[in-house]
Recover the amino acids of this structure.
């Protein structure tokens, strides 16, 4: 039942991303799922869940397997540190964390694609995409809390 | 090195290796089969969204159309009004032209451009002055009758003292009974026929015309009709109230004639 719920959440997120595109820029809500998994379940689950989401995104993007896999895996892994002894989670740090991970995710995808395939967009477009995705995600970082918040 | 770091290191190496492999050979897309169902779901949701949005869109379009049509109606109403105005002006000017042909002392046709600036006098400002041949004491008439006389003239404008002004006087005659009198304004819409003795029989509805005896107004110009006769006063003459034929509130153009 729990897995079915998560499958539905993942599918809904992918659909929501397509629906809510702003000026042709698709938001990066899947990052929030990976961030959530890493933050609440730790680095191993984060990296695994991130890899799964990344693989799906790579497959749906129709290019090649890797850029999203790497970026989401990294985000899943690194987000676990947001609730550990290294960082003390606060709503502000949550928002900043999500913003940073959104930028990191986009940069990794952009770099991987540019390196292993070809440069997907111009620098200006890339900056616009990253900016809009960060705008979408940052406020939601306040609401994604770690398990041990209290 | 901790287990977590090793995991990350291995992960990064593996993914980079995978990408390197794909850059030289076939691309691997393990979850490509999800593309179809997700697209179908997305399409389904889009159609649902469209079916929900369409009635509101239609309402909005109707509202816009409504506003556009209302604006159009307003525009047409203004055009219609202008057209009506032109027709009425045409009618008035035709009447004036007919009168011009019949009037021997015709000088010009002038347009009333304003009421006189003095609120205590009944005057009009005309758009023509001495350059159009207008002189002081010339007479202004319409197809209906006497309007007044020119009181002041400048080069391009002139002032017309209306029949209803308290300073206006003209020698008149009752058309039916031929009694002579003087008509003067009262400052209001009505005029007063003066100097008609008590024994003269003037009836309500009698028409007054200029007599020409004052040497100011040409003989025979229609002035107005008697609206009230009062013989109960203590003076020597009757109090007779006259309504001018030319209603000051409706005059827009006048013909100027000389004596």
């Amino acid at each position: 039942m729990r897995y079915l719920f998560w499958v539905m959440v993942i599918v809904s997120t992918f659909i929501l991303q397509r629906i809510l595109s702003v000026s042709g820029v698709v938001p990066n809500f899947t990052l929030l799922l990976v961030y959530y998994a890493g933050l609440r379940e730790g680095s191993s689950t984060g990296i695994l869940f991130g890899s799964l989401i990344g693989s799906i995104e790579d497959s749906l993007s129709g290019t090649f397997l890797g850029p999203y896999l790497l970026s989401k895996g990294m985000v899943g892994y690194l987000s676990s540190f947001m609730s550990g002894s290294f960082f003390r989670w606060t709503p502000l740090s949550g928002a900043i964390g999500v913003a940073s991970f959104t930028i990191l995710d986009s940069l990794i995808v952009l770099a991987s694609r540019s390196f292993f395939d070809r440069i997907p967009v111009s620098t200006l477009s890339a900056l616009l995409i990253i900016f809009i995705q960060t705008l979408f995600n940052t406020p939601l970082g306040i609401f994604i809390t770690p398990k041990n918040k209290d | 090195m901790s287990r977590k770091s090793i995991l990350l290191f291995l992960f990064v190496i593996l993914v980079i290796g995978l990408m390197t492999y794909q850059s030289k050979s076939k691309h691997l897309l393990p979850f490509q089969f999800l593309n179809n169902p997700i697209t179908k779901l997305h399409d389904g949701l889009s159609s649902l969204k469209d079916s929900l949005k369409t009635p509101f869109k239609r309402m909005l379009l109707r509202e816009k159309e409504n506003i556009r049509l209302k604006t159009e109606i307003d525009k047409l109403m203004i055009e219609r009004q202008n057209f009506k105005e032109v027709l009425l002006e045409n009618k008035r000017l035709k009447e004036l032209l007919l009168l011009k042909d019949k009037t021997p002392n015709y000088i010009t046709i002038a347009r009333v451009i304003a009421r006189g600036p003095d609120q205590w006098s009944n005057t009009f400002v005309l758009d023509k002055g001495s350059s159009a041949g207008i002189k002081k004491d010339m007479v202004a008439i319409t197809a209906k009758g006497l309007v007044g006389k020119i009181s002041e003239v400048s080069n391009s404008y002139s002032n017309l003292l209306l029949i209803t002004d308290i300073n206006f006087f003209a020698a008149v005659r009752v058309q039916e009974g031929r009694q002579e009198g003087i008509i003067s304004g009262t400052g209001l819409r009505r005029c007063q026929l003066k100097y008609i003795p008590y024994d003269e029989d003037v009836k309500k509805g009698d028409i007054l015309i200029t007599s020409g005896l004052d040497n100011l107004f040409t003989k025979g110009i229609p002035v107005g009709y008697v609206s009230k006769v009062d013989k109960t006063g203590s003076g020597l003459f009757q109090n007779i109230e006259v309504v001018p034929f030319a209603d000051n509130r409706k005059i827009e153009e006048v013909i100027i004639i000389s004596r």
